[in-house]
Structure formats: C-alpha cells, structure tokens
Amino acid sequence: MTVLVTGGAGYIGSHTVVALQDAGQQVVIFDDLSNSSERAVDAVRALVGSDVAFVRGDAADTDMVSQTIVEYGVDAIVHFAAFKSVSESMERPMDYFVNNMGSLFGVVKAMGLTGTRRLIFSSSCAVYGEPKDVPVTEASATTAASPYGWTKLHGEQFLEQMALAGELDVMILRYFNPVGAHPSGAIGEDPRGMSSNLVPLLMQVALGHHDRLRVFGSDYNTPDGSPVRDYLHVLDLAEGHVAALAALSSGSGCTTLNIGTGRGYSVLQVVAAAEQVLQRRIPLELVDRRPGDVACIWAQTDLAADVLGWTATRDLTKMLEDHWRWQKAHPDGFGAL
Ligand SMILES: NC(=O)c1ccc[n+]([C@@H]2O[C@H](COP(=O)([O-])OP(=O)(O)OC[C@H]3O[C@@H](n4cnc5c(N)ncnc54)[C@H](O)[C@@H]3O)[C@@H](O)[C@H]2O)c1
Predict the structure, then answer these.
(1) Which of 44, 124, 257, 326 could pair covalently with 304 via S-S, beta carbons 3.0-4.6 A apart?
(2) Ligand 1 within 6 A of CB of 254
(3) How many angstroms separate the CA atoms of 47 and 55, rounded?
C-alpha cells in the first residue's frame, strides 16, 4: 500500500511515517513545513534506510494533492496537516479555521477527484470540551472549549457526512496527549517557536532554556489542583495508525476511536516523574489558568482495543526517558543543526 501522510514532517506524522515504513508500507510525505523542518524528513529517511518521498505543499491545494496522489499511486491518506495549539487558536481563530478546515477540504476534494477512499483523520480529545464524566467514551457528548477544538469537531462532522454519502471510508482518531520520541533520539517534537505543551516546556526548563515551568492553573477540581491529562507515547500513537489503516476496509464508512492509555496524570505528577527520570529539579511557578484548557480528561480505550486490536503499551517513565533523549540530542530542535 502507498500511503500519503499530510503533515508527515511534524511530530506525530514523522513517527507514523517510520511506523508505516517499518510495517512494510510505502509512504509519501506531504507537508508545507509551516511547523516543521525538512531535516525531520532527512532524519526519517536515515532511520528507515530508504528515500521516503517528500512533497512540499499546502494540503489545501487540491490540485497539488491530486497530482501527488496520481503520481505516486496513493491508496490511502493519513491527514495530520493542521495547526495544533489550543492557546494559539484562542489568539488567532481565523488562521486555525482557514488552515485546519482548508487543508481537510483540500485533501477530501483531491480524494474525490482521484477516486481515493481511505482516510485517517487526526482528531483530538479537544472535541469533548470540558467533560462531565471521565473517562470519556466515543459516545460522550462533544463540544469544544477553543477554536482549535471546533476545527476538529467540524472536521469530524464533515467526514461523517461524506462517509454517510458513500464518498469515503474514514477512521477518526481522537488522540489524547502524545509525548515521548523515537527511542533512537533521532526524531521528536520540534515546533517552530515556543511549544504550548507540558513535556517540551518542562524539558526546555531542564536544559536551562527557561528558568521555570509555568503551571497553568492550580485550583482545578483535581486531586492536586493541576489539570489531568491522558499522556500517550507517540510511538504507541504511531502504531495505532498502522493498525487503523489495516482495519480500514472498503465500505466500512466512518469509525471514531479514542486513542489514549486510559489513565490520567496531573501536571504536577508528570513533573515529579520527570524529576526522577531527569535526575534534576524543575523549578515551578503556579500561574493562572490558561484560556481553553479543561480540568480533567482521560480516555476509555476499549473500543480501539476491540476494533484495532491495539492498546498503548509504553508507560509514563518510558515516554519521559525517550522524550529526554531526543531533547538532549537536539536542545534547539532541528533548527540549530
Ligand atoms: N500533538 C498533540 O498534542 C495532538 C493532540 C491531538 C491531536 N493532534 C493533531 O495531530 C496532528 C499532528 O499534530 P502534531 O503534534 O504532529 O503537530 P505538528 O505541528 O508537529 O505537525 C503538523 C504538521 O503539519 C504541517 N502542516 C500544517 N498545516 C499544513 C498545511 N495546510 N499543509 C501542509 N502541511 C501542513 C506542519 O508543517 C507540521 O509539519 C494535528 O492535526 C493535530 O491537531 C495533535
């Protein structure tokens, strides 16, 4: 199978490309490098030992996506390309709607033009907004607490309608909070500018790039007052995509799955675990809540286990060890190499 991976130079995309190649699939990376570097593509090529194809372009450009599908004989698409920061989306909602909806429309239109049917869509636990009960199941009520979350929810609704109309076979994967890196330390999370995610920020403090970690909110209704999330090793997530592609057959319509571990950790618990792994103190500052953040969420993962035969296997220590290996080897990401 030849798989087009939009956003394949990014964090989850690059790990998924490696997992797909390891599973014997041919991959074409399609990315505009708006939040990544071509060096990630080079690192992926070195890791898998083959010249993975790379096309630089905007996924909203239907003609370019169509041409790429035809040129490489693409059978299925994994669509990661999107902006992903909840907090940034609160400041730049227009950019988020234009890019996240535009890239999805571009890809789905190209699929229609070329007769490609199989699509995996990167959704997010952000579609549960502030859940009433945890763990959340795929049947839990959906809403969003940020423009980013709305782009994912609208994307899901659009794909459900397209599948209902018989145009697509789609798996919507609702990721929880990916952390970690490939155990080689060769690829990892490398955002342009400042990350808004806990683990990259924490590692930057450990490297001395910042003097303290700001913990957004210490008065949530959680055991220690800090937000609780379902952290998931990025390699488990990548392997979930391999399983999802294998399970996505013709005429299967639309399936929506939570992809998490089923276990929540608070921000302060993650910091304590990181202090053990890194063998150093992480200075903290407790600051106000961040707009768009929810208090507490983790996944019910039984459906993914049933449908995909997949469960996450790597624990928080492994996530932090692997993330740290990448971060130590690339203190400034790929940019400074
Ligand atoms: N990382 C998370 O915490 C998380 C959680 C849930 C869902 N997701 C979703 O997973 C996907 C991948 O996230 P990530 O963490 O790897 O982010 P990332 O920013 O590292 O990767 C996204 C990639 O898409 C590219 N891109 C963005 N817009 C594009 C466009 N219009 N055309 C072509 N390329 C474009 C970027 O250059 C980048 O390489 C996103 O859709 C994100 O919303 C991420």
Answers:
(1) 257
(2) no
(3) 19
Q: What are phi and psi of 224, to 5 degrees?
A: -115, 10
| Per-residue model confidence as pLDDT tens for the chain (337 residues) | 999 999 999 999 999 999 999 999 999 999 999 999 999 999 999 999 999 999 999 999 999 999 999 999 999 999 999 999 998 999 999 999 999 999 999 999 999 999 999 999 999 999 999 999 999 999 999 999 999 999 999 999 999 999 999 999 999 999 999 999 999 999 999 977 778 899 999 999 999 999 999 999 999 999 999 999 999 999 999 999 999 999 998 788 999 999 999 999 999 999 999 999 999 999 999 999 998 899 999 999 999 999 999 999 999 999 999 999 999 999 989 974 4
Give the span between the Cα atoms of 205 and 199, in whole angstroms: 10
Q: Cis (ω within 30 of 0) for the bond into 178?
A: no
- Mutation choice for ligand 1 from 4, 34, 326, CB with most ligand atoms inside 8 A: 34
Q: Is 89 in the pocket of ligand 1 (CB under 6 A)?
A: no
Report residue 298 as tokens: 């983790």
Q: What is the DSSP string of 275-315?
A: HHHHTS---EEEEPPPTT--SB--B--HHHHHHH-------
DSSP-based three-state secondary structure for 254:
strand
Nearest 5 degrees, angle CA 289-CA 200-CA 41? 135
Q: Of the listed 148, 175, 231, 265, which one is catalytic?
A: 148
- Ligand 1 near 12 CB (within 6 A): yes
Which residues partner with 326 through β-bridges? none
**CATH match of 2-180+230-260 with 3.40.50.720:** yes
What stretches of 24-175 show up as alpha helix (H) in DSSP? Answer: 38-48, 62-72, 86-91, 93-114, 147-164
Please give the Cα distance from 254 to 156 (Å, whole number): 10
Q: Whose CA is nearest to atom 6 of ligand 1?
A: 124
